[in-house]
Amino acid sequence: MKFSKELIDWYLKNNRELPWRKTKNPYYIWLSEIMLQQTRVAQGLPYYLKFTEAFPTVFDLANADEEYVLKLWQGLGYYSRARNLHFTAKHIANNLDGEFPKTYKELLKLKGVGDYTASAIASICYNEPTAVVDGNVYRVLSRYYGIDTAINSTKGVKDFKELAQQVIDADRIGIYNQAIMDFGAIQCKPKSPDCTVCPLNTSCVALEKDKVNILPVKEKKLKVKKRFFNYLVLNTDNKTILKKREGKGIWEGLFEFPLVETSKSIEVEELITNIDFLGFFPKDVKIKLFNAKDIVHKLSHQHLHTKFWIIDSETTTEQIINWSNVETYPVPILIHKFLNEYKISKN
């Protein structure tokens, strides 16, 4: 088939030199695929190198403390990926003798492994003819075949998977899957691709019909929720407070300063009379606002409007720690950035 042959020919000349491309070890392929979900290669590569150095085998990852895993993951986002990664490593090490499943269907049973990751491991490591479908693949297929079905609809997910399966090169499935992903990332990129040098430009429906900048189509996003965070940063005698986030919300398992969440942005007078504030500190503490304007931290479906309040108090209901130990805890990137700015402001 011209489509798959052209992609592989292009890939053999233009592929990116990436460390996980030099192995068929399923552990390394699995690590890379989990890290690259919702993440650009340039951002994910340093984390991959850190993890493979810290955890050269699945047993090393399985034996690590979750807090250390989250600390190494810090800044990569979507922290459920890291928790699932650690859970699955323990399952493979303890229940499967360190051996990864060798088929797409069995790989799908692993926690945190979906269609895309299972397809990647099965095809690259075991040459099983199962097609990968990620954002890059959606874009290439949608443009080349001129398909305007929304890629995030139930029908779109089903139809694009079926199409991807039909057009794979079954003799070179691992190379083909990597080829179409790289082609989407480098050549058929989201905005303003250079179609004049594209090897598929004589048969691309989107180019012929002037729809390159329209395809692929996505259904309207969910409404973004606004949340208002007030972090209470104790700084008395080189002491502070960090609390571990519990539950299934954002940043589960990470640490943060005591938090007062409100329905709107508030001033100090409202803060110190808030019942949640009084659960941490007495009303007569010394307090000042660190950031003059709310810091807006954007997550996929929520925007966190955040204030950091510096607290000087000898009295608190919480367990205190030394400031010098703060950097050893895994924290959300929002707090990591604050810590860096706060350190600079004190120097």
UniProtKB/TrEMBL annotation:
GO terms for biological process: base-excision repair; mismatch repair. The keyword Iron-sulfur applies. GO terms for molecular function: 4 iron, 4 sulfur cluster binding; 8-oxo-7,8-dihydroguanine DNA N-glycosylase activity; adenine/guanine mispair binding; metal ion binding; oxidized purine DNA binding; purine-specific mismatch base pair DNA N-glycosylase activity. It is an enzyme of class 3 (hydrolase). Binds 1 [4Fe-4S] cluster. Its cofactor is [4Fe-4S] cluster. It catalyses: Hydrolyzes free adenine bases from 7,8-dihydro-8-oxoguanine:adenine mismatched double-stranded DNA, leaving an apurinic site. Residues 35-186 form the HhH-GPD domain. InterPro entries: A/G_AdeGlyc_MutY, DNA_glycosylase, HhH-GPD_domain, HhH_base_excis_C, HhH_motif, MIG/MutY, MutY_C, NUDIX_hydrolase-like_dom_sf. PANTHER family: ADENINE DNA GLYCOSYLASE. NCBIfam families: mutY. This is Adenine DNA glycosylase. It comes from Tenacibaculum jejuense.
